[in-house]
Design goal:
Largest sheet: 4 strands, mixed
Strand content: over 45%
Shape: globular
Length: about 290
């Protein structure tokens, strides 16, 4: 486990790979998923053994490590008994998501639509289909993730024709509650991608801003970056992190109060050029 951050810094080393469309999961620690448990960051991940196929499988051992919100270690890695479901693997290619807002639930089940909306389930069980005011020019080919706040709905996605030289620009859409006009659209920018899926994290909301982690191409290199946007701003903010990068990765982001935890796997190569994936964690205050 490699941990880095603004106030929590550990040693790391990694050889960055190029951007590619071909894909096989590396051997080692892969597919981290960050959740918040009792205010702490719990990171679940799989261990793909050297003598096993590198592709993801529910059958692989599930491990967990827990950090305090400030990035200090609370519980070292330990095995979990339960199996992992594919719904925990998000966000790429989400096929539906239930989001609570007060006592109601928003179900974004129709994510195969070029203009996804949601089903609103009220506390008394009444279902209402809600269409979002998408402009005619926008047709999503990939619904990446969604976050609902008391002030509005935030969505990340990919539009047709956005793929350029293996990079897949992500877009951010903000639908303010009570507004009937088109959403605010902000270009997050290109990312490395695996097939058609951007190598980017889920959306998180903290410190009054929306956050996305991504593998961002800068010249011939990849840079691990944190993009954020605050309602009312014209453009987003892109911060490059001093972290090892790898196109063949899976990224997960979570917030506990005003603290962020970004986790992803990165391939490390030894002197014999044999590779092993490690989980990299970045802790940062949302500001």
């Amino acid at each position: 486990m490699i941990a880095i951050g603004r106030a929590v810094v550990g040693s790391f080393f990694c050889l960055c790979g190029g951007i590619s469309h071909g894909h096989q999961d590396p051997r080692g620690d892969i597919h981290p998923q960050v959740s918040v448990v009792d205010g702490k960051f719990a990171i679940d991940f799989n261990r793909s053994a050297p003598d096993q196929d590198g592709n993801y499988s529910e059958e692989k051992p599930l491990q967990r490590v827990i950090f305090n919100a400030n990035g200090t270690l609370f519980a070292p890695r330990h095995p979990l008994e339960r199996k992992r479901s594919f719904t925990e693997m998000g966000p790429a290619g989400l096929y539906g998501k239930n989001v609570s807002l007060g006592e109601s639930t928003l179900n974004f089940g129709d994510t195969q639509s070029a203009k996804p909306g949601y089903i609103l389930k009220s506390p008394d069980g009444k279902l209402t289909k809600v269409s979002l005011p998408w402009p005619e020019r926008i047709n999503l080919t990939l619904f990446e993730d969604v976050v609902v706040t008391p002030k509005g709905i935030a969505i990340t996605g990919k539009e047709p024709g956005s793929e350029v030289e293996g990079n897949s620009p992500l877009h951010f859409y903000w639908f303010a509650h009570g507004e009937t006009g088109p959403p605010v659209v902000v270009n997050i920018g290109p990312t490395a991608c695996i097939y058609d899926f951007p190598v980017a994290s889920n959306l998180a909301f903290a410190g009054g801003r929306f956050w996305v982690g991504l593998m961002r191409p800068v010249g011939e290199e990849l840079k691990v970056s944190l993009w954020s946007w605050k309602p009312g701003d014209k453009d987003g903010r892109m911060d490059i992190l001093d972290s090892p990068a790898d196109w063949n990765s899976h990224m997960s982001l979570a917030a506990s109060g005003d603290q962020l935890c970004l986790a992803y796997h990165c391939v490390v190569r030894d002197a014999n050029n044999t590779s092993d994936a490690r989980i990299v964690t970045v802790f940062r205050k949302a500001e």
